[in-house]
Design brief:
142 residues, elongated, mainly alpha, 8 helices
Length: 142
């Protein structure tokens, strides 16, 4: 199984099912990457393994490489990332979880909204820390 991601332990907003649906749909060809790219970037995914897979797919699209389990797996292997994302079995699992009547626009919206909420929490924590440590101009912090 995949290594736990530090975000899991912070209790930050995330939707693993939606992230996995999006990646599964990208890998099996049900969702066009260019459609997804208009809304999401790799840093919108909560788990590092999902960010890595999305980034790999993005790079492959830029070079015109076909996207499927084998090609994504091969690219991850070439970049020495395949094992760190859970191996080829994780990519295959993603496809098996993709619903027959998908609502990808909703999944993309869920992942984007969770990302915005995580970034909001992280920014608030940074401001909180600076205020407690009395770093920076109080007016600017506020």
């Amino acid at each position: 199984m995949n290594k736990p991601d530090p975000l899991d332990f912070k209790g930050l907003p995330q939707s693993m099912p939606a992230e996995r649906m999006i990646l599964g749909a990208l890998v099996n060809g049900s969702l066009d990457f260019h459609t997804c790219r208009a809304t999401l970037s790799a840093d919108d995914f909560a788990l590092e393994v999902n960010r890595t897979i999305y980034s790999t797919i993005e790079q492959m699209c830029h070079t015109g490489t076909a996207i499927d389990h084998a090609t994504v797996g091969q690219e991850l292997l070439r970049c020495a990332e395949l094992e760190s994302v859970g191996g080829l079995s994780y990519l295959v699992e993603l496809d098996h979880e993709t619903p027959r009547l998908p609502h990808f626009d909703e999944y993309v919206s869920i992942v984007k909204n969770k990302s915005i909420l995580r970034k909001t929490v992280i920014a608030a924590e940074k401001i909180r820390s600076q205020a407690i440590l009395e770093q920076g101009d109080p007016e600017e912090l506020l």
